[in-house]
Amino acid sequence: MDFTSVRIITGDVARLVEFYEKATGVPATWATEDFAELRTPGATLALASTRTVPLFAPDSARPADNHSVIIEFRVDDVDRVHANLTGLVPEFVTEPTTMPWGNRSLLFRDPDGNLVNFFAPVTAAAAARLAR
User: Fold this and answer.
1) What is the mean pLDDT of residues 80-100?
2) Which residues pair with 45 in a beta bridge?
3) Does 76 lie in the same domain as 126?
């Protein structure tokens, strides 16, 4: 089994695609006006319209209602990314901080309110644990 993607259901696919393209520097691939993907070497972030929900099961997902998942991207330099995101992200939840497990992290919310963490391993133990 391979973990391949996380899908965000949104009321405005174009807005979220534009945000994530700017935040990550990864261009989206559009399948339809209701579905786009940002593909990275490790996983894919899929963005889908609320109009796709009934294809799975009616009322099975609600946009802008996430209170338990953090979408994480590994980056090379958290502080540089923080500087680049200033102006795109209106408010950071957590400024660049080195966590007890050895990652430097930057936490913010996307336009739908989903938590996003850009992180980089900064200790030898964290780098070894996250070796690609």
Assistant:
1) 96
2) 6, 38
3) yes
Is residue 132's pLDDT more than 80?
A: no
pLDDT of residue 82: 98
* Number of domains forming the structure of the chain: 2
Indicate which CATH number applies to the domain containing 14: 3.30.720.120
Average pLDDT score, the chain: 96
What the block records as the tokens of 31 is 């399948």
Residue 25, phi-psi category: left (phi > 0), alpha (psi -120 to 50), beta (remainder): left
- The DSSP-derived string for the chain is ----EEEEEES-HHHHHHHHHHHH-PPPEEEETTEEEEE-SS-EEEEEEGGGHHHH-TTS--TT--SS-EEEEE-S-HHHHHHHHBTTBS-EEEEEEE-TTSEEEEEEE-TT--EEEEEEE-SHHHHHHT--
Range of 97's domain?
Answer: 67-132
